[in-house]
Amino acid sequence: MKDPLLDIRNLNVDFRTPRGRVHALRDVSFSVPRGKSVGVVGESGSGKSTVIWAVTQLLARNAVVESGEVLFDGEEVLSWSESQMMDVRGEKISIVFQDPMTSQVPVLNYAQQMTDILYRRRGMSMAEKKKKAIEMMRRVGIPDPESRIIQYPHQFSGGMRQRAGIAMALLMDPMLLIADEPTTALDVTMEAQIIHLMRELQREFEATLMVVSHNLGLIAELCDEVVVMYAGEVIESGDVRDIFYRPAHPYTQALLECDPAREEERARFLPVIPGDIPDLHMPPQGCVFAPRCRYAAEKCHDVEPKPTTLPEAGHNSRCHLLDGTVTVPSGKSKSAETRRADDTTSPRQVDGAALLDLSNLSVRFQVMGAVHARLTGVSTPYVDAVLDASLSLRKGETLGLVGESGSGKTTLGRAILGLVPAKTGQVLFEGQDLLKLPPGAFKALRRDMAMMFQDPVGSLSPRRTVKSLITEPLEIHGRNGKNLDVEAERLCDMVRLPKNFLSRYPHELSGGQARRVGVARALALNPSLVIADEPTAGLDVSVQGEILNLMSELQAEHGLGYLIISHNLPVIRHISDKLAIMYLGRLVERGNCEAIFDKPAHPYTEALVRGVPKPDPDKRRTLLSIEGEVPSVTNRPQGCEFHTRCKYATDLCRTERPDEQMLSDGRILTCHHPLAI
Amino acid sequence: MWWYLLKRLGLSVVIVLMAIAALFVMLHSIPGDPVSIALGPRATPEIQAAYAEKMHLDQPLAFQFLIFVGNVLQGDLGTDVFSNRSVGLTLSEQLPYTITLAVAALGWAIALGIPLGCLSAIWPNSWIDRVTGVLSVGTIAVPSFLVSIWAILIFAISLRWLPVLGAGDEGDIIDQLRHLILPAFAVGLGWVGYLARMVRASMLEVMGENYIRSARAFGLTSRMVVFRYALPVAVLPTITLIGVGFGGLLSGTVFAEIIFSRPGIGRIIYDMVLARNFPVVQGAVLVTIVLYVVVTLIADIIVSWLDPRVRDSL
């Protein structure tokens, strides 16, 4: 058997911080065989990125490699000098980065960036380097590379930027290609395209691939072997099928159960892993997962488990259950907190009163002044962010609003609350037209509507305590004789936040805790409608369930109507009663959530639903669900706006815009050629 | 881009006009009658009236303002009340001295401050960073007139290396340069520290960006990373700062000009305010305002030219 390309042995990395050392990587060992692709899976804080930076020796200044070996192509690289490493980076090991917007320098164009990467090729002339760069751009599917190569990153769309990032990484024909969350910043359709491209390129370049991600679907799509990390340790590793079908470690089992994309049936309550990852200043004495493990016995808390080899070839795990010293307590079968007994998989019958009714709502943004438009000859100095949107929502019901970035979904949510002015249309809230109300009357109604903003930490003022944040709505809308201290404690209890958190500041909260504060703020005034913008964005899989479950419970208790805006289809699928799909500011399909997911009628919906990578290595996509990119809203396509990317498009679609039509199951669709349902 | 230039130019004109108006109002609210100052205490009321009429001082303020704006647009900044010389001529004699001093002071401050800031950011907490840090705060805190006096005491009086007063003989470039060294040193010293702090801060921020790490991950040398990837971004806010600073120096060199007995705009404004010589003050302030607006406009244009993101959003 050939030696592996990358072999990491017993790697320990610490970070020096003012509060002492953080033991970020502890005894990490795994290898990447030549020509294979290995996935490293873990949630935030698992140390998966630290592994990348340790291998390339680009760790932050405060990091110390305590012990261990990193063998690359048979040679120990940790002792190498900076100049030796420089010859390895880019040349032999190259990286595709997570967020192509921030990882590409804004002031140099792609030709400059790519010829810079080729700086070691002294024998090549500038023209040859540029030619090579253009060829690589063409190879990764960037149309018209000759003219696009002199553009800057901000002139590329997200998907194209990531393609360019891949082109840069492959330019030197590296032996090892590391992909760090390569699709996390992208929309579903772009994600599918990038996965497809990477699989193709791996075959073509015969590169060895290491994919680092929290996205189980991505790993299942791309990898042959999987390494599962938790809190700085490798807790399980093995063949991709072993990990996904026969997970041995309770954490791996729980993680797979928590992934909403894996749950085949709809369930309003998602499984979660209770607790938080341990403080790595003082890692637990025994098994690192024991504090959150459902099977944890006394021994697990005291003795650190040794790696155990399982019967399947190459399958290893660290767990006392496997070395036979601890047994599963009877009656416990699932590793994640099982879903509640009262949860039914059939859609709930919602017969609440009508809460929100939008008809033909349009929002238009002015993008340049009238004089400017006249001078530059622009005939439409505005952008239609939302066009003729109609929706309805009942009390106690959840409506999922789904679309790619730039589809106008956030704008629609904000327009309902009057945060952006609507151009035309009607917003009926509890029977009153919000757009026609005088400001005074609107403020009174506004109490009954709440918004949960994107970015849980960023939407909280960093200078206010949790208590002041969650009682702020009461101060704005009048406290009606309520005692703020009592209210703060009530809200804290409601979102299950410990009371001692009331005096903390936002930067002292984890993502999930900040989200709870956001929920408490939204519910402070007992609203009847909550508009939640990406409520789980940035949360780990094991935590997002907690937030969604909490929101579901509060909904059942208070009869709230939820409008949930998200691009995360698996999550939306579980929690929504109704679904609305938005494309370029228009709702293209809306109706019962489950029906739409089962049999999408609009080609765009179909592409979205099929585009989600499945955490199942045997269900890899072989065909791309959708090609091309979202057109610019400043230059809307004629006819059906989706025709430029639709594989069923006909001449009719290119010339005439389809009207809304109702299908037999009651869903409303905007398409000339609906798919069979 | 062209639209942006047009907009900025239009805005600059508005700023200058507003500045003229503000200046006009302020000067007319200063106590003291320009007629009696110009003609002296012994002038008869008839002569005073004739002079006031000639200078349109008997007209309503609004009319005087319009005349003033009209004259300015024609390049006529008025006449000196005492010497009857054209204000424009006086200022055009003084302006080169001030501009030379400002360019020299900022020039050496940039040449030293930006590299020091860079080095501090590349090796944070190294000895060079600590020394630069202490010296920066020190030089920012010490006022420039104090530096001027010490510089004169040490280099001109004790060591006798450099001349003390004046701007040097006309036509003798070497002599003029020797006269420039001490004032430029005194005015620029604070700027060295200021720019070093500024560049260090923005450089540290940029060095922490993801794209710096990606450039290093592609194996680029440290020199390429610093000079091609970090510095061009880090220096952008500094350019704006230098623009504003240069504009400020056009009238802010007054201390140095007085202490070193150099001619210059700052000095003229100071002397003429004391003498109630309104037309000269008006003209001098106006010229500095226009220069200020022009310099900051140039700085903004340079920034937007260097940053393709800004360039495209215009």
TrEMBL record, chain A:
The ranges of region (Disordered) come to: 328-348
Q: How does it sit in the membrane?
A: Peripheral membrane protein
Keyword annotations from UniProtKB, A to Z: ATP-binding, Cell membrane, Membrane, Nucleotide-binding, Transport
Q: Where is composition skewed (Basic and acidic residues) in this entry? A: 334-345
Q: Where in the cell is it found?
A: Cell inner membrane
Kindly give the SMART domains that the UniProt entry links to this protein. AAA
One Gene Ontology molecular-function label:
ATP binding
Q: Mind telling me which Pfam families this protein's record contains?
A: ABC_tran (PF00005), oligo_HPY (PF08352)
Which intervals hold domain ABC transporter?
A: 8-256, 363-609
Q: What is its main location?
A: membrane
Q: Which family does it belong to?
A: Belongs to the ABC transporter superfamily.
| Protein name from the UniProt record | Dipeptide ABC transporter ATP-binding protein
Automatic annotation (TrEMBL), chain B:
Superkingdom field: Bacteria
Location(s) in or outside the cell: Cell membrane
Q: Which Pfam families match?
A: BPD_transp_1 (PF00528), BPD_transp_1_N (PF19300)
Membrane-spanning segments: 9-30, 99-122, 134-157, 177-196, 280-306
Principal localization reads: membrane
Q: Which UniProt keywords apply?
A: Cell membrane, Membrane, Transmembrane, Transmembrane helix, Transport
Q: How does it sit in the membrane?
A: Multi-pass membrane protein
Report the residue ranges that make up the ABC transmembrane type-1 domain in this protein: 95-299
Q: Please name the Gene3D superfamilies in this protein's record.
A: MetI-like (1.10.3720.10)
Q: Member of which family?
A: Belongs to the binding-protein-dependent transport system permease family.
Name of the molecule in the record: ABC transporter permease
Which organism is the protein's source? Pseudohalocynthiibacter aestuariivivens
